[in-house]
Amino acid sequence: MPAPHAPSSPPPPGTGLAPDALQRAVDDLRADLGAADFTVDGVERRLGPVAAAALHREQAVPARRVLRGAWPGPGRDEAREHGASSGTDDAVGTLTALFLLGDDVPRRALDAALARTGTDGAVRLGLVEVAGGAPDDAVRALVDLRPYASSDAAGPVSWWLSSDLGELATDRRLAADHVLGAGGASLTLAQVTMRTAVDRVLDLGTGCGIQALHAARHARHVVATDISARALGFTAFNAALDLTPGEPGTGAGAIHLRSGSMLEPVAGETFDLVVSNPPFVITPRATGGGAGVTEYEYRDGGRAGDDVVRDLVTGVGAVLAPGGVAQLLGNWEHRRGEPWTERVGAWLDAAGLDGWVIQREVLDPAEYAETWIRDGGTTADREPGAWASAYDAWLDDFATRDVEAVGFGIVTLRRPVSGVPTLRRLEEHTGSVHQPLGAHLAASLAAHDWLGAHDDAALADERLTVAQDVTEERFHTPGAADPSVVLLRQGGGLGRAVHASTGLAALVGASDGELSVGQLVGAIASLFEVPAEDLAAELLPGVRGLVRDGFLLSDAP
Q1: Can you tell me the distance from the alpha carbon of 460 to that of 188, in angstroms, rounded to the nearest whole number?
Q2: With contact defined as beta carbons under 8 Å apart, do 105 and 97 qualify?
């Protein structure tokens, strides 16, 4: 069992190889990984749904049972289908054990799994280390190499991402310069990013490069920055492995790497899109760093409280081209006596940009401390008193600023093409959403602009249609002829539910593009026997909200 301490970090894969040699090596590796069925679906087929789900929860025991043939589920049947006589004799089982579980495998098994690359090629790439040259000598992973599957505007992707091994594989505390793979926050950002074709994209704080890889599919130029030289190394390797040379917009050369903190590496430049999963974790600093609290480059920005997110929100406009959009994740403190909408709203005002903030989650100070003490490899269970000491440090730090809760969410900013900002929207939406969300956010921004160009008279002349994902729910009091509540529910996007008056529900129900909004208002007013002007004053604000949020669509929003 490895000793429970932070290991020295190995160099990123591909370090020291000449560009041509690296490209030849990753071409072979890519072919090997595909031939081995080392994909998201392939791993799940090999492990079976129960063990695969447990592995997603960072629980390795079920997967290890499957690989040694001790699990009476689908994984054992799949092993037979692969012709496996033991857990590491089949290619996908070998690679799963080696790179996902951190288990040693025999050299002969890895030679068979990576037919072109072989164990020696994996060593040259910096992926593994070996105990010797004999067929049964042990091979151990130096990095986490795992399959990744997603979909963006350019279609589905099936990639492999390298990053540092996690605690599940090493049983040791993470190093301070640990490079994280595609975690939950990274996946969220990739799904909410707008994928409009653009010229220049900045991935600020690239980590293992997942945002830059997606951006390379819809941008001519991508700049990826990070304060961590190791992160930039992993990004370079992942780009070489996953972006197939020769395909327009997806060559590995499309990603340009810059070293530095926050916006410093791109000062004086402008971009059409900025994406960032910044190091936003609020780490104790008022107590001198906090007893027992380890700082990690991938999550700690070196500033007090939520200053990292504030500074990025207020400063990113300096690198946005006119019409350029910035999308980032972040968290912010809820301080006693100050609504979060006022606190974050002040950041938007200082930024001088269109701003839309969606708060997705709220944790009390204790929940927040527990989340981040646990994350990042704290070995409190092996160090008496460390957990309590770190917990106290976090709560002491929050107490210095009267923090009652911490919110987490999505921030979308845009530099107006001309004039002053027109969008300032801060809302809470903690329910489920329908990913990918990027297209919905882009459509909502476009609808906001369209509405800004239409006063009420112009809106009344428009013919609108109901979006296909909208349904209506009516709730009746027993015995009542009319509904007491009418809900319009959105099936896609943010999955919003809107309480509609009888008149608004009638207008939405009749919006099939045949009659204008004004004609529908007139017909409903006649039916209700009320003045059309009064009904229009009541309904048009609701119509605007429904257009903005995608319930009602114009032919040219």
Answers
A1: 38
A2: yes
In terms of domains, do 458 and 528 share one?
Answer: yes
Question: Cα(309)–Cα(519) distance, rounded to whole angstroms?
Answer: 47
pTM of the prediction?
0.91
DSSP 287: T
CA–CA separation, 213 and 417 (whole Å) = 27
How confident is the prediction along the chain (557 residues), in pLDDT tens digits per residue? 333 444 578 999 999 999 999 999 999 999 999 999 999 999 999 999 999 999 999 899 999 999 988 655 454 454 444 434 344 459 999 999 999 999 999 999 999 999 999 999 999 999 999 999 999 999 999 999 999 998 876 778 899 999 999 888 888 888 888 999 998 889 999 999 999 999 999 999 999 999 999 999 999 999 999 999 999 999 999 999 999 755 544 444 479 999 999 999 999 999 999 999 998 889 887 544 445 577 788 888 777 889 999 999 999 999 999 999 999 999 999 999 999 999 999 999 999 999 999 999 999 999 999 988 865 444 444 565 777 888 898 999 999 999 999 999 999 999 999 999 999 999 999 988 888 899 999 999 999 999 999 999 999 999 999 999 999 999 988 888 788 899 999 999 999 999 999 999 999 999 999 999 999 999 999 999 999 999 999 999 999 999 999 999 997 54
Q: Residue 198 belongs to a domain with what CATH number?
A: 3.40.50.150
Phi-psi region of 69 (alpha: psi -120 to 50; beta: other; left: phi over 0): left
Domain presence at residue 166? no
For 490, the domain range is: 449-553
The answer to whether the CB of 411 falls within 8 A of the CB of 332 is no
Both tokens assigned to 149? 């599957």
Q: Which two tokens stand for residue 32?
A: 């090997």
Cα–Cα distances (Å) from 160 to 56, 146, 190, 240, 457, in that order, read 16, 5, 15, 11, 54
Residue 334 in any domain: the answer is yes
